[in-house]
Amino acid sequence: MLKGIHKFQHGVSLIEMAIAMTVFAITLAYGLPSFMEWTQNSQLRTVAESVQSGLQLARSEAVRRNARVEFKLSDNVGAAGATGWTVRLVSTGAIVQSKPDSESSATVVITATPSGVDTVTFEGTGRRLINPATNADGSAFLTSVAVDSSTLSAANSRDLRVVIGAGGQVRMCDPNVSTTGDPRKC
What is the mean pLDDT of residues 53-57? Predict the structure, then answer.
């Protein structure tokens, strides 16, 4: 009477589970280093875009308000994770916008050029301050910001640089690109 009923196995056996876990472990072992490298490089790009956005904000606020506006990097420039910045009006010191160091990866390092300089001032025309040819505090202008990783090797790191031109233009470039005519070249 019950000839058509078969007993089927439900679930997986211990051997099938062990094989699946081994395949997963091998895949993870090969893929994790590449994923970590990709994550670090994404963090570099995020910080470079943040610095570029802050500089463009300072420039556009200077034009919008027809007043001098200053972009200043974190006081801890050069330390891992010190990627913050502040945009403020020179005349009143009022902060337009700021980004604290704590909003970034602790493994990203930014380096200012010239060394020891952390500020650039834009005038009402959107250009870097011309008269006087220094920031409001008398310091030299920030001309570029290099973004690098403190944990990746130079071969694996996708370093970026944000450059501030004399006319006030702000652009991001790749210092590792050397092909003439490539728009990513610094």
Answer: 95
